[in-house]
Amino acid sequence: MPREVAKVVCYVVHDNHLLVFTHDHQPMALTGVQVPAGSINAGESPEVAAVRELFEETGRQGQVIRHIGVQEYDLRPGRDEIAVRHYFEMRLTDADIAERWVAGEPDPSHGRSEAVWTCWWIPLTDAHVLAAGFGGLLGSMVAQIPVR
Kindly report the CA angle at 39 between 105 and 96, in degrees rounded to 5? Predict the structure, then answer.
C-alpha cells in the first residue's frame, strides 16, 4: 500500500497569468511545466506550507488568497506514494508578468543534485500544459475568477 504524503500546490495568479517554472538542466520531457509545490512539514498548516514553498521555489514572498480544494495524485510507479495535494490560489507581493528569473533548490528533497529552474508567467488559457497532474484543480479556480 503506498504511503500518503501531504502536499501543497500554489496557483499564483496575476493579471490572468499563472506563475510556472521549467527546469534548466533537465529535459522538458522529464520535468514538464510546473507550478510551485511541495511537502507540508510536521505541525505545519497547509496555508503556511504554501507560503513557505512559494518562497523556497521562487525566492518571492506571496499570500494565500483562498483554498481551492484537495486532490489525490498517485505518484506510482516513480514513487510508492499518493500525494494528497492541497491547492491554493495565491498572489505575489510584487508581480510583473514580463519578468523571468532563475531560482532553485541547493538540496532538493528527492536527494539528487542541485535543481535550477526558470520562473515565468503563462496566460491562464495556456495552463493546460502543466505536468504531473498540477492542473488538477485549475478549472475550479478559474471558474471563480472574473475574466477581464
Answer: 55
The region that residue 23 occupies, defined by phi over 0 for left and psi between -120 and 50 for alpha, beta otherwise, is beta
Alpha helices (runs of H) in 22-113, residue ranges in sequence order: 28-31, 46-58
Quote the cell numbers at residue 9: 500546490
CA distance 46 to 40: 6
Q: What is the pLDDT of residues 74-97, one digit of tens each?
A: 989 888 999 999 999 999 988 999
Cα–Cα–Cα angle for 74, 66, 36, nearest 5°? 50
Radius of gyration of the chain (CA): 15
Q: What residues does 75 pair with on adjacent strands?
A: none
500518503: which residue's cell? 4
pTM (2 d.p.): 0.89
Alpha-carbon distances of 64 from 45, 51, 73, 120, rounded to whole Å: 12, 7, 22, 19
- Residue 19: CB atoms within 10 Å: 26
Determine the residue type at 32: G
Task: Kindly report the backbone phi and psi dihedral angles of residue 94, in degrees, each rounded to the nearest multiple of 5, phi listed first.
Answer: -125, 125
